[in-house]
Each structure stands twice: as C-alpha cells, then as structure tokens.
Amino acid sequence: xxxxxxxxxxxxxxxxxxxxxxxxxxxxxxxxxxxxxxxxxxxxxxxxxxxxxxxxxxxxxxxxxxxxxxxxxxxxxxxxxxxxxxxxxxxxxxxxxxxxxxxxxxxxxxxxxxxxxxxxxxxxxxxxxxxxxxxxxxxxxxxxxxxxxxxxxxxxxxxxxxxxxxxxxxxxxxxxxxxxxxxxxxxxxxxxxxxxxxxxxxxxxxxxxxxxxxxxxxxxxxxxxxxxxxxxxxxxxxxxxxxxxxxxxxxxxxxxxxxxxxxxxxxxxxxxxxxxxxxxxxxxxxxxxxxxxxxxxxxxxxxxxxxxxxxxxxxxxxxxxxxxxxxxx
Amino acid sequence: xxxxxxxxxxxxxxxxxxxxxxxxxxxxxxxxxxxxxxxxxxxxxxxxxxxxxxxxxxxxxxxxxxxxxxxxxxxxxxxxxxxxxxxxxxxxxxxxxxxxxxxxxxxxxxxxxxxxxxxxxxxxxxxxxxxxxxxxxxxxxxxxxxxxxxxxxxxxxxxxxxxxxxxxxxxxxxxxxxxxxxxxxxxxxxxxxxxxxxxxxxxxxxxxxxxxxxxxxxxxxxxxxxxxxxxxxxxxxxxxxxxxxxxxxxxxxxxxxxxxxxxxxxxxxxxxxxxxxxxxxxxxxxxxxxxxxxxxxxxxxxxxxxxxxxxxxxxxxxxxxxxxxxxx
Lengths: 329, 328
What we know:
Chain A is of the alpha/beta class. Chain A folds into two domains: about 10-230, Spore Coat Polysaccharide Biosynthesis Protein SpsA, Chain A, CATH 3.90.550; about 235-300. In chain A, about 45% of the residues lie in helices and about 15% in strands. Chain A is built from ten helices and nine strands. Chain A has helices at about 25-35, 50-65, 80-85, 110-115, 135-150, 165-170, 180-190, 210-230, 235-265, 275-300; strands spanning about 10-15, 40-45, 70, 95, 120-125, 160-165, 195-200, 310-315, 325. In chain A, the strands form two sheets. A seven-stranded mixed beta sheet of chain A has the order 3-2-1-4-6-5-7. Chain B has two domains: about 5-230, Spore Coat Polysaccharide Biosynthesis Protein SpsA, Chain A (Alpha-Beta Complex), CATH 3.90.550; about 235-300. Helices cover about 50% and strands about 10% of the residues of chain B. Chain B has helices spanning about 20-30, 50-60, 75-85, 105-115, 130-150, 165-170, 180-185, 215-230, 235-260, 270-300, 305-310, 320; strands spanning about 5-15, 40-45, 65-70, 90-95, 120-125, 160-165, 190-195. A seven-stranded mixed beta sheet of chain B has the order 3-2-1-4-6-5-7, sandwiched between helices. The radius of gyration of chain B is 25 Å and the shape is elongated. The interface between A and B is large, with 53 and 63 residues.
C-alpha cells in the first residue's frame, strides 16, 4: 500500500471484476484525464476475487514507481461490495468509480467531476454510442422497464463511470450487485442525480452474447429495485393487494361450488375445482398474513426509519449572524 | 438556544414564499403576549421558490427560529415528523404554513394542555374551503376514521394541534400518517381534547391537496386499524384469524373420514384435500402469530413505554406531573 502525501480531493475507485483490460494502458488513460482536473487524486483498485493477470500488471506498474492502493478481496463479492470495501480506504470528498475496462475516454473525466457542481451524483452516459441494433434494443428494453417501475429515466446504467459526493456512499448501504442501481437508490435518498454525456472509448466493444442467465438476473434485479422503491415501507399494500385478490377469487369459486351443491345437487366429491379454490383462499390468507407481519416489523421499528433526509438545520445564535449549520440526516 | 423553551411551534412550508413572513409575524404576535419561552421550527419541504431564503432571513433576524431544510420534497408527514423530532419544547404546536390556521388560537390550546390533556386537536367548524372537492370528502373521511379507529374526532385534517412532547415523540409517524396522528396516538391511550379553531380562506399561494388522496387514506386507515389492534398481541390476533379456517378444515376432514368409514365410495378426495389445506393454513397462521410475538418483543414500540407516558400519578401538581421522557 502506498499513498499520495498531499490531502486527496478525488478518490478514484476501480473495481476489477470479470472484465478488465490492461491496467497500464487503462491507468495511463485515466491519469491523463485526472491530471487535467488539477486536483490531487488517489487511485484505489479493488480486486473482486483473485485476478492474477491484472495483478501482474499492477505489480509491474508499482515497480515503475506508480502510486495507487490495492484492496484485494479473497473471493468475488460483487461490484457493490467491492466498491464499499474500497470506499473505506478513500479519503476524497469526491468519489469517482471507474470501470476496469475501456468504456469511456479518459479525457472526459474532468467534465464528469465538474458536473457535481449542481448535483450530488453525476453518472456517465456514453454518447454518441456505437453498438449493434440488438444491443440497442436490449438496452432500451432494460431502461424502459426500469423507468416504468421506478419512474426514473436513465439511459446508460451499464456504464461504470460515476462521480459523487462521498455523502452518497456514507448514507447508502450497498450490497451484492446493487452498484448498477446506485443512481436509483441515491435518488430515493433525496440526492440529485444527473446524467452527463461522455465520449465512448474507441476500444469499448463487447463481442459475443449474453447468456439467458444474465437476462434473468437483470430482470430479478429490477424486481428487487421495484420492491425496494415502492413497498419497503408499505408491505401490506403489496402483499395485502395480491392476497386479497387471490382470497376473493377463491372465495367466490367456493361460494359458487357450494351453491351448485345446495341448489342443483352437484356432488362436491366430484369437483376437483373445490381443491383449487380452497388453495387460492389459503394462499391469499397466507399472503395477507405475511403483509401484516411486514407491517408489524415496520411499525415496531418506525423510530429508526426515516422517511426524510434533512439537508441541514439552520439556526442563528444570539448576538451574531453566523449560522450554526448542522448537516445531518 | 440557552434555555429550553416551554413551547415549540412547528410549521412545514412547501412553496409558501408569499406566506412565510406573515406566518412568522402572526405567530410572534400571538405567542409573545403569553409570556412563555418559545421557539419556532420552520421545515422547508424542498420548496422550489424562495421559501428557504425567506426563512433564513427570518432566522437571522429572530433567533427563536430554526430552519430545517429537507433535501427534497417529502410531503407533510415527514415534514411534521422532522419538526417534532427537532423541537425542544415541552409542548409542541403544529400548524399549516398557508395562513389558513390562525396562530391566535394557540393560547386556547395551551390552556387545554394545562388542563391535563396530552393531545389537543383543532376543529375547523367554519371551514373556508370548496364544498364539493374539499368539505364533503373530508366529512365522510372523518366519519370513517372515527368509526374505524374509535377516536371520534370531527376534523382529522386540521393541522393545528398541540401535543405534549414526551408523548408525541414516541409515536411512530411514517407514510401519510399525519392525518391519523390522534388515531396512531390512541395506542398510547392519551387524553385527547378537541377545540374549535378559526379557519381562513387561502389568500396567497396555491392549495396542494386534491380528492385523489382518498384511496391512499382508505388504505392507510386499514393498516392503522389492523396494526393498532394487533401489534401488542399478534399471537392472539392471528389465532382468532386462524380459528374459522381451521374449524372448517377439521370439519371437512372429519366428514371425509366418516365417508370412508360408513360408505362404500371411499374417501372424497376434493373435500379431504381442502380440509387438510385449511387446517394447515390455520396452523401456519398461528406460526405467523408466534413470529409476530418475536418481532414485537425485539421492536421499539411497546405498551410499557406508552403506559409510562400517560400514567397519572396522584399527588404533585399537574406541571411537575408531566413525564420527562421515558426511561430507557
């Protein structure tokens, strides 16, 4: 571990996952952009699991006297965990996460950091973008679905280049693979999030295709975000709604079957539909009960849950006009 | 603030640049003559206009004012909840920032609190709003809230309310619960009084409420009702819910057994199956109740705390009787 002696303004976190390019070229490209910024910066690599090829490159860079911090995780924990692990070592007020492979042009970094002037989080959007038409369709479908679910329109959450105020990571506990959705979660916390168009790196090309597993994963992630955003504090609205619908349909079916038995002599013993309708009643009831339990959890912990984020409290002491400003949440 | 104020006036503002100065002047005019130390907590709920600048100007001139700035617009309940958490007074007064409430009513509220009530709610008996879009829906909603929660208050929507701080700080406020604060508080068993307040038509700015909220109100009402009635004894509540289903299930199983024993048809599969399902479901509900007991035991909201808050101890005069926050 080595550190830059001057106080650091910008901490650059580079999580290294399955995809990475040559660390020397990557680092040179980023460094050129960061120097143009004119503020002291530090670079932290997080190896999400053992990445021998990348590590060898880093070794070589270190032997040439380049300064950076490496945080190595014993096994792959996911990008979000990796970023959080690196964040513990970051000291800059501005945190910049960058992809470990060529996605954007390094010379665009100052633009990204400068955007923080009027927002708390600036996320890069590769534009203009070169990609195949299927790729484009896939991307549009993903962001369209996300916009429909959360009401937030982003156009390139796949881009790992993001600049934010360190308060964002201090307040949001990320885990697993939520890194991609950090902008959504940040918006929920009341941070201002903005997209900034940056030039795409000419080397950013993904050849090959994604496995169905990847699609399933993306879909499940959206569902998780949907639940987090809409219903975490109102579990009964979610479970109760589904539960009551199931229960109602089941109960109507039962009523109909019973009526047929009573007035038309249809023997219930001959009706497998009875089993189906009872199942619906029972499932509806159980879902409703789950919602109630969720509501109980929320209610008994409501004092720790804050629906709001206080930006600051402004008060003036007697006989002076210097505000005592407390920021906090 | 060196000394702890006796009274905190909490006012949320959302895009009220035209009203905030007048509101401040009106509060000062109304409360200063009472001779109590007081503070004002202005909550800026992420306004887009110059409300915050005005509020900071006021705070600069008057150091009894504290301004709480939200990061963005969160709504009235969070604004009230933040104000309540930030306030230091022994008695808290909440009111709207749009001048529709009259600060000169505050004296009456304090009188009621001194009589020993924990919560005093305002009743806009002469409400100055549109009849069809505002007054009639509100009448129906209040009737319903009263029926369901068992706290018959004629005007839940009136923001002008007074609370004993030690009590209201313990009440969980989330979602859109500000309409139901008395109902939520009823789990703590407070003494609630209702007094008539003046209500003015809106003079400046725009109204921010509409009829579309009715659906949300109904859902929240249901949640409060269930939560308030079952939180402290989930196992009992779940068992009651489970009983009819388990009974029907047991009856169906018994009938199937009887069929098996008494007739040559064999066991009637749909009936037996349904019976087993229902019985198991009842069992699962009871298990859910046990989980509920666990959750409740490890939660923060307990009947014991509430009982401490509202207990009346005979002997010392009312002023000293006010509890100084729960022992933890």
